[in-house]
Recover the amino acids of this structure.
C-alpha cells in the first residue's frame, strides 16, 4: 500500500469519526453511504461563530467591546478579494470576513467559527454560496448562503492547521481545498453532502493555489513555492484516486509560481518570479514566453491569469494588465536552444506608478467588462478592461504593518502611519477616512500631541525610517478657505509645520514631557533626542542608550521629578532626568553627558521561577505523602501488624527516587523587551518576549550604578504570571483614562482586557480578563491599542494591516451618549493661509542635527586655518617686495661697491635646500601626473588614429582662374580591416573555379570478382613461368610458329580489350532512365521561378527561394561591396581633381615664368605700347590644405614671439581658439609675395625712366633697329598674353567639365548613400535574427551531416554485407567440395560407408585455437586432453555406437574399426576437421551478417528520426526566413522619381499618397512586355518541337525492337555454330587467346620427345621378350617331356598305392589311422575355404573400387607374397586333391 492509499484510509477513518459525531449521520460506514443531507438544512450562525473568552466567575460582561468598524485591508494576502454581486465585495480581515458595499461603503461582518482566523475564501460560480476556509486546530470550511449569510454546509477534517486556498469546479458540484503546514493536504469535497471525495498530500512546501480545469473534467492544478503540480482524478481497480505529476523545470531556473491558467487542450500557462510566462505540456516546460528582445512579460511576478473572450490576460506586480493572443501562445514553441518564444501583447494598460496588482475578479453579470483588482500596495481598483483606460481607485488603505497609531485628546480622531510612506487621519465616529498625506520615506511611529502641548489638539508628530521627525498640523480646510474667500469640500488637511532630522536611523518612539515643554524622540541608532516645545522646536541635546529604543514613557504627574523611562529592545532600561529647556551643550556636539541616568539590564529569572515552582510542588507532594504515611501507620498499629515500619521504610526508599530539577537557563541572545510602564518612582513593569514571555516582571533601578551598563545583570524583584502567554507575548499595554481597564495587545493577534483597580500600581488585582481574537493569528500581532479621549472607543492596529475600532457600549447606547454623527476637526490657526510652506527634508542622506553641527564646527576650523594661511602668504609677499626693493637699490649702486647676488644670500644651503625640495616636488608632480600624461598621450593617439590617420584624403578645393567655379574632392576615410577582409574574401571566391557539378551519366558498375582462377590467367601465368625456366627449348620452326601464334593472340587480346573499353564507354555514356538534360533542368527551374501564380514578397505565405535568402553575412558583403564601389568612384574622382590641382600648380608656375618673360620684353618696349601685366593667380589655402600641418623651427619661434606679444598686450589667444596667432602667421607668409610684386612694379618704373632717357640719345639707324626689335617684342608680348589667356581658359573649361562630371557622380553618390542606409537598416534588422538563424542553421547542418554519416554507414554496412555474402558463397562451395571428396574417398559398396559417414558428419565440441603460439608443451597436452574429453562427451551426448552387422559388437568412432582402411579413416577425420572449420567460418559470417542487418535497421530508424528533425528544422528555418522577409519588407526604401515617371493617377489627378503604387524599372517593364511576345513565339516553337520529338520517339522505339530481334537471331545462330563446331558453348575470347600458350607447346614438345624415347626402349624390350619367349618355348617343351615322364611314373605309383591300400584295409590299426588322417585333412580344408572366401570378398571390393573413375587404389592389407603362397598352396591342393571341389 502506497502513501496516498494510507492517507486515503486515514482520511476515510477521520471522516467516519466526524460523521459519527454528527447527529444526522450516525452509524457504520455502510450507513454513511446512505446518509443524505437535505438541501434545505442550515446551521445556526450564533452557535458557530467564535465568542470572546472570559475568565470563569469573573463577572466580566461578554459584550465588553463591540466591533464598530474596520479601517484596514490585508492587501498582501493571496486572493483576498471576491465578488458576491455587482455591488458587494468580500475580503478577509483577521478573524473577520468583511462584506463591503461598493456604493454605500457599509460593512457587514462574519466572524470565524474557530477563533483562529480565516485562511481563504471563494465564491460559488452561481454567486449563491460563499466558502470560508478557516484556521486553527482542525479548522472547518463553512459554506454560507448568499445573501442570507446562513451557514449551509460545514466541511470537517480537510487539514490540520490552516487552509491556504479553496476553489469550486466549473459547475460548482465539487470543492477543492489545499492546506498549509504541516500536512499540505489536497482535498476534493462533495460539499453539498459534506463528504471527502479524494485527498492526497499536495507537496512538501507551501502551496499558493489550487484550481479545477474549466475544460478538462477531473483535472486540477496546484502551484506554490518552487513547484507546480498537475493532478488527475483517475479510476483504478481500488477506486477513484488522485494522481499527481510534478512539473519539471529542466533548464529553466526553479521559481515560485503564483498564478497560472489551464488551457482548453490541457496545457497550462504559468507565471514566474522573473516576469516571463511558462507553457507546460506533459509535466515539462515546452517553452518560456517573453517579449521581443528577450524582455520580460511583466516587470516582476505574474500573480494571476484569466482567459476572457479568447484572450489571455495577465496581472503582474508591476501594476500592468496585459492581453495576449491565446492561439499563438497555445501553439508556441522554442526556435533555438535558449528555449524562449518572443511575443508582444495585444493590448496593455498600466494602472499606476505605485500599483502592484495581486488578484482580480470580474464583476457580475459575466457579460460586463468591469473588473475589481486587489492592489498589494493598499487599494481596491475598479477597471474597465476592454482596455478603455478607465481606471478608478475605489478604496485606499495602508499596505503592510501599521507602525504608528494614536488618538486625539479632545475628539474622535485617529492618526496612523506605516512604511507605505503615508499618514492617514480617520474619524472613527463617522467611520471614514478624512485625509492622507504621502512622503518619500515610510513612517515608523506617531504621537498626537496633548492639549498641554497644543491647545487645539491639531499637532501630530511623526517619525520616519530615515530619522526625520515631521510636525504635522491638522485643520479643517473649509474654515481656512472660507476665510480666504474660497470653498473646498475636504473635511481635513495635514500641513507640514516643521521637519527635523535628529537621528540617522528610523525613529521608533516619540513622547512629550508631562508639562508639555520637552519632546523626546528615540531611534534605532541608540540615541534619544530632546527638543524644546514652542512655535519652533529647537534641539536641546541627546543621550545614548545601550540598545535600539523600543519605547519612551515620561513619569506621571504623581512623581516628584520629571524623568524619562527609555526601553531598549535588548532588555536594557534607562531612566534619564528631564533636561532644562535652556540647557546649553558644550563644544561641537549636542550630546548631554551630564544628565543623571539610571540603568537596568534585565536578567532572566523564568527558569528559576519554574524551578522554585517545581520545588514547591514536590514539597507539597511530600507533605501530602507524609500525611498519608502517618495515617497508614496509625491504622497498622491499630491492627497490631508486624514489620509495619520496615515495609513503610522500604516504600519510602522506593518513592525517594525523583527526577532531577529543571536546570537554570539564561537565553542567549537575551529575550527582546516589548513594552513597559511606570509603577512607582524608580520601579516599573516589563513585558518580555521569547523565552521570558508568560510573566509581567516588576523591576526597579539599583542604587549601585557604578558598574558598566552593558555588563549589568539586574533581576526583577517581583512578577505576575499571565495565563496562556508562554508562547504568546504581550506586545503593547495601555490604560483607559480612569486606569480601571488595562488593554493588552497580544502576539497572536488577540486583545485582552484586564479589569484592575485605579490605584493598584502593583497589579495585584490583575486576575480575570476578557480576550477576543480579532487580528490574524499567524502574522497579525497587535502592536498598538488605544482608548479614545472619552473611553467610548478602543482602537487596535496590527501587523496584518488591519485597523479595528471597538465601542465600549452597545450601538444604541453609544448613539444616545454621543448624539453626534462625526468627530470635530480642529480649526486652522489664525494667519495660517499667509504662512509659507515649511521646508521639508526629502534627501534620505541629509545630515542629522548632530552631524550638521559637527560639520559646521569642522567648517569653522577649516575657515580659521585658511585665514591663517592667507595672513602668512600676505606677510611673505611683503617680505618679497622689500627684498626686491633692496635688489633694485643694489643694482643702482656703482659697480665697485655693488654687492654680488651671492653676497645677499644668508646661507647658500637655504637655496640648495629649496632647489632640492623644488626638484623633489617636480619629480613628485611628474610621478603624480604620469598617469594623466599617459592618458592624454593615449587620447591624442586615439584622436589621431580616429580623425587623422583614418582619413585617406582630406577635402581639397580647386578654384577656377577667372570664373567663380570650383570643385572639391571627396573626404575619404580608410576602409576598415573587416571591410577589406570581406571584400578580399568575396573577390577570391568570385575568382575561384566553378563549382564541381555532378556527372549526369551513370558510372558502369565494376565487374564482380570471380573466385576461381580463369583458364586464361592460368595459361598466362604458366607461360611466364615457362619463359623464366630454360629446361627445354623449342625448335626454330616451332618457335617461329609459336611466335606468330602469340602475336596473333596478342592482337586478338588487344582487339578484345579495345572492344570491351568501347562497350564500357558506350554504357558509361548511356544516360540513366531518370536522366534529365541539365539545360532542360535549368530551364524548368527558371520557368518555375518566373512562371505561375507567385506570391508577392509582402504576402504572408511567401516562401523565400534558396538563392534569395539573405542573412547578416551576405548583407555585410553587399554593404562592403557598396562601400568599396563608393570608395573606388570617389577615389577616381579625387584622382582627377588632384590631377587638375597639380596642373593648376604647373600652370601657375608657367604663368610666373611667362610674366617674367613679359617683364623682360616690356623693358625693351616704350611705355605707351606696354600692355598691362595679367595678375598671376595664387593658390588658395583650401587648394593646399596639407600646408597647414607643415612648420619649421622659424615658424615655431615666430609663433612663440607672437604669443608672448599677445600676452604682454593683455590679449588672450584662447578666446578664439588660437586663430589670431595663426592668422598673423598667414599674413606674414603672404606679405613677402606682395612685396615681391611691388618690387617688380617699382623695377618696371625705373626701367621706364631709363629707357626714356636712353631713347633721346639714339641715332636714326639705331631707331630703325629699335623699331624692328619693338615690332618683334610686341608680337612676342601679344603671343605670350594670348598663350596665358588660352591656358587659363582651357583650365577653366577643364574644371567646368570635371565639375559637371562630379555633379553627376554626386547624384549617384547620394543614391548610393540612400542604398547604404537601406542596407544598413536591413543589416541591423538581420542582426536580430542572426543568433536564432545561426542556431537553426547549425542544427540543420548537424542534422544533414548526421544524415550523411548515417547514409555512409549504411552504404558501408551494405558493402560489408555483400562481401560477407560472397565469402559465404565461397565457403559453401568449399563445403560442397569437401563433401564430394569424402564421397569419392568412400568408393562403392563400402561396408563402412555408414560408419564413416556418421564420423564425417558428427558434430563435436572444439576448443578455439589460441592466437598466441607460445604456450608450453604441458598446455598443449592439456588442450589435447580437453579435446579428447569434449570428443567423448560429444560421442555420449550426440551419437549412438555403431554395431557390426555380423558380430553385433559396438564400434567406437574414435578408433578405426578392424578391417577398415586406416588411411580412409584418417582421411575422414581430416575432412571432418576441414568441414567443421568451414562451418565455423560460415557461422561467424552469418553472425556478422545478422549484426550488420541489425545495425542497418537501427540506422534506418535513426535516419527516419533525423530526417524528421531535419524537416522540422527546415520548417523552422522557413518560418524565420518568412518572418525575416516580412521585416525586410517593412524597411523603407527611398526611390527618387520625377513627375514624368509617375504614371499612377486617380481620376486624372496625381494622388496625395503613393502608398499603393508600384515602382518598376522602365527597362524591366519593356523587357517584360517584349518577353510576353517571345514566350508566345517560344510556345509555338516548343509545340512543333514536341511533335517532331514525339514522331522521332516512336520511330526510335520501332528501330529498337527491330534491333533487339536481330540481336536475338544473331545470338541463336552463333550458338548453333558453336554446338556444331565444338559440341558445346565456349568462350570465344578465351579460345582466341589459347593459340599462343608457349608453356603448352613446350609441354607438347616434351611429350613428343618422351614418346620417341619410349618407342625406342619399347622396341628394345620387345626384342628381349621375343628371345625370352623362344627360350621359354624351349624350356616348356623340355618340361613337357619331363612331365609326361613324370605322369607315367605317377601312374605306376598310383597303381602300386592302390594295391598297397587294399592290403592295408584288412588290418584294424590301419583303419584307425585312416580316420585320424581324414579329420586332420577336413580341418585343413575348412581353413582353406575360409581363406578363399576372404580372398573373394577382397577381390570384389577391389573390382568395385577400380570400376569408379575417381577411385584411389590402395595397397593390399597383407603382403602379396603371403597371398601368392596361399593361392599357390591352395591351387596345388586342389590339383592333387580332387575332393576339394566337393568341399568348396
Amino acid at each position: 500500500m502506497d502513501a496516498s492509499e494510507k492517507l486515503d484510509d486515514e482520511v476515510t477513518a477521520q471522516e467516519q469519526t466526524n460523521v459519527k459525531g454528527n447527529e444526522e449521520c450516525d452509524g457504520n460506514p455502510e450507513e454513511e453511504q446512505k446518509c443524505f443531507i437535505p438541501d434545505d438544512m442550515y446551521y445556526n450562525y450564533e452557535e458557530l461563530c467564535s465568542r470572546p473568552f472570559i475568565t470563569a466567575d469573573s463577572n466580566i460582561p461578554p459584550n465588553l467591546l463591540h466591533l464598530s468598524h474596520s479601517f484596514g485591508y490585508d492587501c498582501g494576502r493571496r486572493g483576498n478579494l471576491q465578488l458576491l454581486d455587482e455591488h458587494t465585495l468580500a475580503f478577509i480581515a483577521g478573524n473577520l470576513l468583511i462584506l463591503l458595499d461598493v456604493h454605500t461603503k457599509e460593512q457587514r461582518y462574519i466572524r470565524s467559527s474557530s477563533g483562529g482566523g480565516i485562511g481563504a475564501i471563494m465564491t460559488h460560480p452561481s454567486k449563491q454560496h460563499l466558502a470560508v476556509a478557516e484556521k486553527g486546530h482542525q479548522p472547518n470550511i463553512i459554506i454560507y448562503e448568499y445573501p442570507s449569510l446562513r451557514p449551509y454546509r460545514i466541511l470537517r477534517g480537510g487539514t490540520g492547521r490552516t487552509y491556504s486556498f479553496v476553489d469550486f469546479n466549473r459547475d460548482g458540484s465539487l470543492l477543492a481545498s489545499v492546506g498549509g503546514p504541516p500536512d499540505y493536504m489536497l482535498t476534493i469535497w462533495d460539499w453539498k453532502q459534506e463528504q471527502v471525495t479524494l485527498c492526497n498530500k499536495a507537496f512538501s512546501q507551501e502551496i499558493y493555489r489550487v484550481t479545477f480545469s474549466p475544460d478538462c473534467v477531473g483535472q486540477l492544478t496546484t502551484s506554490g513555492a518552487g513547484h507546480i503540480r498537475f493532478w488527475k482524478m483517475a479510476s483504478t481497480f481500488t477506486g477513484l484516486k488522485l494522481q499527481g505529476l510534478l512539473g519539471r523545470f529542466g533548464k529553466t531556473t526553479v521559481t515560485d509560481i503564483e498564478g497560472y491558467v489551464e488551457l482548453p487542450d490541457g496545457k497550462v500557462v504559468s507565471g514566474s518570479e522573473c516576469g516571463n510566462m511558462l507553457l507546460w505540456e506533459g509535466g515539462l516546460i515546452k517553452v518560456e514566453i517573453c517579449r521581443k528582445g528577450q524582455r520580460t512579460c511583466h516587470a516582476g511576478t505574474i500573480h494571476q491569469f484569466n482567459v476572457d473572450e479568447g484572450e489571455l490576460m495577465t496581472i503582474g506586480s508591476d501594476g500592468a494588465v496585459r492581453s495576449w493572443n491565446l492561439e499563438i501562445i497555445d501553439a508556441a514553441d522554442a526556435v533555438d536552444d535558449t528555449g524562449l518564444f518572443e511575443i508582444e501583447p495585444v493590448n496593455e494598460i498600466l494602472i499606476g506608478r505605485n500599483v502592484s496588482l495581486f488578484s482580480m475578479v470580474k464583476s457580475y453579470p459575466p457579460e460586463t467588462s468591469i473588473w475589481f483588482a486587489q492592489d498589494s500596495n493598499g487599494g481596491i481598483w475598479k477597471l474597465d478592461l476592454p482596455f478603455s483606460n478607465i481606471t478608478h481607485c475605489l478604496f485606499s488603505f495602508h499596505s503592510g504593518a501599521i507602525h504608528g497609531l494614536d488618538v486625539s485628546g479632545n475628539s474622535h480622531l485617529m492618526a496612523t502611519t506605516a512604511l507605505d510612506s503615508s499618514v492617514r487621519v480617520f474619524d472613527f465616529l463617522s467611520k471614514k477616512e478624512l485625509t492622507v498625506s504621502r512622503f518619500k520615506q515610510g513612517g515608523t511611529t506617531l504621537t498626537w500631541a496633548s492639549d498641554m502641548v497644543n491647545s487645539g489638539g491639531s499637532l501630530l508628530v511623526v517619525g520616519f525610517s530615515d530619522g526625520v521627525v515631521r510636525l504635522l498640523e491638522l485643520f479643517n480646510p473649509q474654515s481656512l478657505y472660507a476665510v480666504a474667500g474660497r470653498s473646498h469640500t475636504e473635511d481635513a488637511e495635514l500641513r507640514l509645520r516643521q521637519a527635523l532630522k535628529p537621528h540617522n536611523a528610523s525613529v521608533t518612539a516619540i513622547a512629550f514631557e508631562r508639562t508639555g515643554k520637552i519632546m523626546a524622540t528615540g531611534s534605532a541608532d541608540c540615541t534619544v533626542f530632546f527638543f524644546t516645545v514652542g512655535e519652533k522646536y529647537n534641539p536641546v541635546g541627546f543621550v545614548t542608550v545601550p540598545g535600539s529604543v523600543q519605547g519612551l514613557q515620561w513619569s506621571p504627574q504623581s512623581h516628584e521629578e520629571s524623568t524619562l523611562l527609555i526601553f531598549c529592545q535588548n532588555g536594557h532600561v534607562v531612566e534619564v532626568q528631564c533636561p532644562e529647556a535652556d540647557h546649553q551643550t558644550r563644544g561641537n556636539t549636542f550630546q548631554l553627558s551630564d544628565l543623571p541616568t539610571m540603568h537596568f539590564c534585565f536578567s532572566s529569572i523564568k527558569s528559576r521561577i519554574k524551578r522554585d515552582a517545581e520545588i514547591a510542588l514536590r514539597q507539597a507532594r511530600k507533605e501530602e505523602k507524609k500525611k498519608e504515611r502517618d495515617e497508614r501507620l496509625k491504622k497498622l498499629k491499630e491492627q497490631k501488624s508486624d514489620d509495619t515500619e520496615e515495609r513503610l521504610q522500604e516504600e519510602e526508599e522506593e518513592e525517594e527516587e525523583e527526577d532531577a530539577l529543571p536546570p537554570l537557563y539564561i537565553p542567549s541572545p537575551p529575550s527582546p523587551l516589548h513594552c513597559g510602564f511606570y509603577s512607582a518612582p524608580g520601579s516599573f513593569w516589563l513585558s518580555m518576549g521569547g523565552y521570558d514571555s508568560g510573566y509581567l516582571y516588576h523591576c526597579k533601578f539599583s542604587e549601585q550604578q557604578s558598574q558598566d551598563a552593558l555588563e549589568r545583570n539586574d533581576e526583577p524583584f517581583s512578577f505576575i504570571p499571565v495565563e496562556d502567554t508562554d508562547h504568546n507575548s504581550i506586545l503593547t499595554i495601555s490604560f483607559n483614562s480612569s486606569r480601571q481597564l488595562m488593554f493588552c495587545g497580544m502576539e497572536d493577534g488577540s486583545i485582552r482586557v484586564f479589569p484592575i483597580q485605579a490605584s493598584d500600581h502593583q497589579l495585584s488585582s490583575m486576575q480575570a480578563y476578557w480576550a477576543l481574537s480579532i487580528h490574524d493569528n499567524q502574522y497579525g500581532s497587535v502592536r498598538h491599542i488605544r482608548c479614545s479621549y472619552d473611553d467610548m472607543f478602543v482602537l487596535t492596529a496590527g501587523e496584518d494591516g488591519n485597523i479595528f475600532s471597538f465601542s465600549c457600549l452597545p450601538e444604541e447606547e453609544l448613539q444616545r451618549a454621543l448624539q453626534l454623527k462625526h468627530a470635530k476637526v480642529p480649526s486652522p490657526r489664525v494667519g495660517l493661509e499667509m504662512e509659507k510652506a515649511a521646508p521639508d527634508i526629502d534627501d534620505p542622506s541629509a545630515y542629522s542635527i548632530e552631524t550638521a553641527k559637527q560639520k559646521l564646527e569642522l567648517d569653522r576650523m577649516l575657515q580659521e586655518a585658511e585665514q591663517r594661511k592667507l595672513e602668512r602668504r600676505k606677510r611673505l609677499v611683503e617680505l618679497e617686495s622689500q627684498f626686491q626693493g633692496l635688489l633694485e637699490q643694489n643694482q643702482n649702486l656703482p659697480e665697485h661697491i655693488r654687492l654680488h647676488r651671492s653676497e645677499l644670500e644668508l646661507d647658500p644651503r637655504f637655496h640648495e635646500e629649496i632647489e632640492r625640495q623644488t626638484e623633489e616636488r617636480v619629480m613628485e608632480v611628474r610621478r603624480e601626473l604620469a598617469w594623466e600624461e599617459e592618458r592624454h598621450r593615449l587620447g591624442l593617439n586615439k584622436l589621431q588614429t580616429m580623425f587623422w590617420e583614418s582619413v585617406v584624403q582630406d577635402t581639397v578645393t580647386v578654384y577656377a582662374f577667372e570664373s567663380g567655379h570650383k570643385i572639391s574632392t571627396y573626404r575619404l576615410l580608410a576602409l576598415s580591416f573587416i571591410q577589406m577582409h570581406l571584400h578580399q574574401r568575396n573577390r577570391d571566391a568570385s575568382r575561384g573555379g566553378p563549382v564541381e557539378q555532378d556527372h549526369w551519366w551513370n558510372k558502369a558498375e565494376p565487374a564482380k570478382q570471380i573466385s576461381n582462377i580463369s583458364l586464361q590467367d592460368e595459361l598466362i601465368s604458366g607461360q611466364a613461368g615457362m619463359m623464366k625456366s630454360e629446361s627445354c627449348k623449342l625448335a626454330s620452326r616451332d618457335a617461329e610458329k609459336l611466335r606468330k601464334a602469340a602475336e596473333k593472340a596478342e592482337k586478338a587480346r588487344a582487339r578484345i580489350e579495345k572492344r570491351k573499353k568501347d562497350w564500357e564507354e558506350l554504357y558509361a555514356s548511356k544516360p540513366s532512365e531518370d536522366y534529365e538534360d541539365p539545360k532542360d533542368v535549368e530551364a524548368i527551374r527558371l520557368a518555375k521561378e518566373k512562371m505561375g501564380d507567385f506570391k508577392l514578397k509582402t504576402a504572408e505565405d511567401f516562401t523565400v527561394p534558396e538563392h534569395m535568402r539573405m542573412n547578416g553575412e551576405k548583407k555585410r558583403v553587399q554593404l562592403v561591396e557598396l562601400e568599396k564601389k563608393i570608395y573606388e568612384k570617389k577615389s577616381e574622382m579625387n584622382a582627377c581633381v588632384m590631377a587638375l590641382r597639380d596642373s593648376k600648380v604647373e600652370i601657375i608656375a608657367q604663368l610666373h615664368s611667362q610674366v617674367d618673360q613679359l617683364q623682360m620684353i616690356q623693358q625693351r618696349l616704350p611705355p605707351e605700347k606696354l600692355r598691362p601685366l595679367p595678375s598671376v593667380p595664387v593658390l588658395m589655402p583650401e587648394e593646399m590644405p596639407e600646408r597647414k600641418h607643415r612648420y619649421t623651427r622659424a615658424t615655431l619661434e615666430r609663433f612663440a614671439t607672437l604669443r608672448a606679444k599677445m600676452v604682454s598686450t593683455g590679449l588672450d589667444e584662447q578666446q578664439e581658439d588660437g586663430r589670431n596667432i595663426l592668422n598673423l602667421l598667414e599674413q606674414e607668409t603672404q606679405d613677402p609675395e606682395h612685396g615681391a610684386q611691388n618690387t617688380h612694379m617699382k623695377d618696371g618704373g625705373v626701367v621706364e625712366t631709363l629707357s626714356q632717357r636712353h631713347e633721346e640719345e639714339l641715332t636714326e639707324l639705331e631707331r630703325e633697329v629699335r623699331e624692328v626689335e619693338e615690332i618683334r617684342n610686341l608680337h612676342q608680348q601679344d603671343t605670350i598674353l594670348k598663350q596665358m589667356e588660352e591656358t587659363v581658359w582651357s583650365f577653366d573649361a577643364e574644371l567646368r567639365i570635371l565639375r559637371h562630371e562630379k555633379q553627376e557622380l554626386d547624384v549617384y553618390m547620394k543614391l548610393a548613400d540612400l542604398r547604404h542606409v537601406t542596407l544598413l537598416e536591413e543589416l541591423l534588422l538581420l542582426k536580430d535574427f542572426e543568433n536564432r538563424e545561426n542556431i537553426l542553421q547549425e542544427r540543420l547542418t548537424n542534422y544533414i551531416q548526421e544524415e550523411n554519416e548515417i547514409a555512409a554507414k549504411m552504404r558501408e554496412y551494405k558493402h560489408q554485407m555483400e562481401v560477407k555474402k560472397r565469402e559465404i558463397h565461397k565457403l559453401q562451395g568449399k563445403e560442397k567440395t569437401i563433401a564430394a571428396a569424402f564421397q569419392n574417398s568412400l568408393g562403392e559398396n563400402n561396408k563402412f560407408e555408414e560408419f564413416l559417414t556418421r564420423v564425417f558428419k558428427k558434430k563435436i565440441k572444439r576448443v578455439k585455437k589460441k592466437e598466441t603460439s607460445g604456450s608450453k608443451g604441458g598446455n598443449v597436452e592439456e588442450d589435447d586432453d580437453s579435446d579428447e574429453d569434449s570428443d567423448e562427451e560429444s560421442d555420449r551426448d550426440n551419437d549412438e555406437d555403431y554395431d557390426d552387422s555380423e558380430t553385433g559388437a559396438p564400434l567406437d568412432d574414435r578408433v578405426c574399426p578392424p578391417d577398415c582402411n586406416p588411411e580412409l579413416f584418417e582421411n575422414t577425420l581430416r575432412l571432418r576437421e576441414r568441414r567443421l572449420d568451414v562451418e565455423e567460418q560460415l557461422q561467424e559470417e552469418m553472425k556478422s551478417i545478422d549484426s550488420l542487418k541489425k545495425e542497418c535497421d537501427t540506422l534506418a530508424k535513426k535516419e527516419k528520426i533525423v530526417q524528421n528533425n531535419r524537416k522540422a528544422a527546415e520548417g523552422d528555418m522557413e518560418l524565420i526566413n518568412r518572418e525575416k522577409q516580412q521585416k525586410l519588407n517593412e524597411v523603407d526604401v527611398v526611390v527618387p522619381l520625377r513627375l514624368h515617371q509617375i504614371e499612377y493617377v486617380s481620376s486624372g489627378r496625381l494622388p496625395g499618397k503613393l502608398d499603393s503604387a508600384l515602382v518598376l524599372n522602365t527597362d524591366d517593364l519593356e523587357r517584360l512586355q517584349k518577353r510576353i511576345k517571345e514566350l508566345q513565339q517560344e510556345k509555338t516553337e516548343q509545340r512543333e518541337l514536341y511533335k517532331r520529338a514525339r514522331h522521332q520517339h516512336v520511330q526510335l522505339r520501332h528501330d529498337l525492337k527491330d534491333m533487339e530481334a536481330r540481336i536475338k537471331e544473331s545470338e541463336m545462330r552463333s550458338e548453333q555454330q558453336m554446338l556444331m563446331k565444338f559440341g558445346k558453348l565456349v568462350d570465344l575470347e578465351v579460345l582466341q587467346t589459347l593459340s599462343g600458350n608457349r608453356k603448352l607447346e613446350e609441354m607438347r614438345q616434351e611429350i613428343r620427345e618422351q614418346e620417341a624415347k619410349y618407342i625406342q626402349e619399347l622396341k628394345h624390350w620387345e626384342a628381349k621378350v621375343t628371345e625370352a619367349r623362344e627360350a621359354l618355348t624351349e624350356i616348356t617343351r623340355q618340361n613337357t617331356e619331363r612331365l609326361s615322364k613324370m605322369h607315367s611314373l605317377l601312374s605306376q605309383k598310383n597303381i602300386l598305392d592302390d594295391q598297397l591300400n587294399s592290403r592295408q584295409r584288412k588290418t584294424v590299426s590301419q583303419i584307425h589311422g585312416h580316420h585320424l588322417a581324414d579329420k586332420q585333412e577336413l580341418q585343413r580344408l575348412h581353413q582353406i575355404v575360409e581363406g578363399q572366401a576372404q580372398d573373394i570378398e577382397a577381390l570384389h571390393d577391389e573390382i568395385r573400387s577400380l570400376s569408379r573413375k575417381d577411385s584411389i587404389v590402395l595397397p593390399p592389407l597383407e603382403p602379396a607374397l603371403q597371398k601368392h603362397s596361399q593361392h599357390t598352396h591352395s591351387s596345388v591342393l586342389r590339383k592333387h586333391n580332387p575332393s576339394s571341389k566337393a568341399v568348396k
The chain is about 45% helix and 20% strand. The chain has a mean pLDDT of 81.
